[in-house]
Amino acid sequence: MLSVARQTLRARWASFVGVFVALALGACLLATTGLTIASTVSDGRQPVWYSQADVVVTGSQTVSITVDEGDGERSTSTQRTRRPQQLPADTAARLGALPGATVVVDRAVPVDVAGAPFDAHPWSSAGLHPLTLDGAGPRGDDEVVLTAPTDRRPGDRVEAWTPLGHRTWTVVGIVTGPPAVYLADPAAALLAGGRVDAIAVNGVAAGQVRDVVGPDAAVLTGDRRAGAEPDPDADLLAVAASLLGTTAGVAVFVSVFVVAGTFAFAVAQRRRELALLRAAGATPRQVRRLVLGEALIVGVVAGVAGCAAGTLVAPPFAAWLAGSGFAPAGFTARFILWPLLAAFGVSLLVALTGAAVAARRAGRVRPIEALREASVDRRVMTAGRWVFGILFLGGAAVLLALVPRLGGEAIALVLLDAQLAITGIALLAPVVAPPLSWLVGRLLVPGVAGALARDNARTAVRRTSSTVAPILVTVGIAAATFAATATLWDASERAAAARVTAATIALPAGAAGIADPGTGVPTAGSVVYVRTDDYAEEVDALYTGPGVETVLRLPVRSGAVADLAGTDTVVVGSALARASGWRTGGTADLWLDDATPVRLRVVAVLEPSLDLDQTVLLPWALRAAHLPRTGADAVYLTRTSSLDGARTVTAAEYFRSRDAEQRRLNHLALVAVLGMALVYTSIAIANTLVMSTGGRSRDLAVLRLGGGTPRQVLTMIGAEALLVGVTGVLLAGLVAAGMLAGLRAGLVHLVADPRTVVPWTPILLIAGACVTITFVASVVPAALVLRTPPGRLSSVRE
């Protein structure tokens, strides 16, 4: 059957162009994302800061949870935290007592020097990596060494903001090397509050160091020394990998959708051809093998072409990620073989999977029944489509009814509800789309051409539903995702701003934060790690100074926020408390962001809220005891005033600016994913309409022989295309409207007077693009067909 499949492909190559393009594009996307994801996985960072240290000692930076799975089996999951634990104060002295050991204590404190953020280190740590010095090292508390390039020179004075407030330093030297500023060791220790980030040891073996520090500290040698250095690119690479994984998943899903739809349409058009094969003695199994053989050949060729294109597209795509803020500056994609092999294998699997249902249908063709069948659509709706379509719509209706009752917990179900509704309507499209197209035509397209367009859209069930379905999926997902995201962002910001009772909020000018303000309530964002089943989940944390209840209107279910004090108390959000089993007066076991395990007394549990459900509030004194000394992220002021080195804003301005970058990245990610889906939609629509135009040659000839001009025929086809396109957009709009209604009903219990926010520009652009593609893909092939004289056109074989 492979030889027959090759002959079929040569004879009907135009029918498989859409499948080839869809598979090649899918393979290209998978290869591009695979190469880029593989490039985000470092081959092993080389140490830079500690390159001249034999051994580096840091505190533990992991949270491990071990679960007993029964039968003596135990599994352990490990989560890397944002920073390591603080080393004991006497660690350096104990290491220094080793014979022949040279010990250097390193600390890193964020400061702002001349408006630029740096980490301040002790001058002794400058010898841990290669550098050249122009000038002298710092000796006094007001002396500093800067890293080149800089426009400062020895003898210049620089203004700095530190966790201890404003400082004026004298530049005594300029060095080359990693970006940093260097202070005299006592000055750096004072800024760090005595905290030790790492200890470099030379002259002794790692085993001796490990014997001194014990199992609770990390002893790093070789390339592992890089683990003690900050990795600012790690979070960005994780974001890039997440975006790429989502894009790849959508690519696989939509490509299966396109391939399955294309093969189903091709089999429907070839029923008489397949019936002839059956009449000539071909068995159902051989017919199925024929269709799968076609898919195999197209899949192999498209996979090779797509992977080759992916190697060319990956580097500029990686550059776009870096330029958009999704990846570190200078990030690029490297040539790696295994992602290409994986992309080829997945594209081939997609081809066979997409063709499987069509092959099964082709094998059921009965020779006599198919040969006698007229060229009209019959039994497009199978029992499976009816059952699953109704089930999906029923599930969407149930979820929509539950949203108002479940409140905040149901917000995450809203997008799932939209996806269920879209899938259900797509399955029932042969029933829903034709009559709706006819109704739209009655309202929008009058005249003879409109009447013909309405009748064609209503009777050509398969063509209409095959065109409406990808429009519904693309526009529906776009409208639901954009609108839900914008509505949730707006509700979260408004909920956070509405609870602020402070007159103004002071924000720092740089990374050093606001030093002890002496007034107002300081706050700083962080994370903690909470055990969830068999792993540690990262949740938001907010450190707050005394009196937070006077500047924030916190909805308390039980307990008192005023009791948040000392270093052993916590206030928890309702969803987090329920999931972890925490109660007021009980204890909460968690890990701070430096991997320190703490047991805190729950002094209050909050009511359900959109912005604090998965958050813990921690006392300011706990931050001072465990985290590096840094200033506050914000200070809530009870009266209008100003703080040195800070600017004041309103609550609305604060929350809007705080989330602006995250919103920008989310928007770009949505545009990237939905833009890719739009490309696939274009392929599906164009392929369906181009294939169907070939099958309408005789219909067009009859119109021409009946006196219709080419312009009139094209007007009818264009009107039909617009009707079908608008129908898909209307169905998508109905789904999005239902989803937004459910979302608003859920937000009513969490936000006062929630607003529905719809970003019309991207939604209308995607909808307009779908309708335009439908129009062009209908009119252009028809115009080419109409160039053939009507007499010859009427004799064209099927």
Automatic annotation (TrEMBL):
Keywords: Cell membrane, Membrane, Transmembrane, Transmembrane helix
Location of the ABC3 transporter permease C-terminal domain: 248-364, 673-790
Transmembrane region(s): 236-269, 290-315, 335-359, 380-404, 410-433, 468-489, 668-690, 721-743, 763-786
Annotated Gene Ontology cellular component terms: plasma membrane
Domain of life assignment: Bacteria
Membrane topology: Multi-pass membrane protein
One term of GO molecular function: transmembrane transporter activity
Subcellular location: Cell membrane
Region called Disordered, residue ranges: 67-87
Chief location: membrane
Family, similarity comment: Belongs to the ABC-4 integral membrane protein family.
Name assigned to this protein: ABC3 transporter permease C-terminal domain-containing protein
Source organism per UniProt: Dactylosporangium siamense
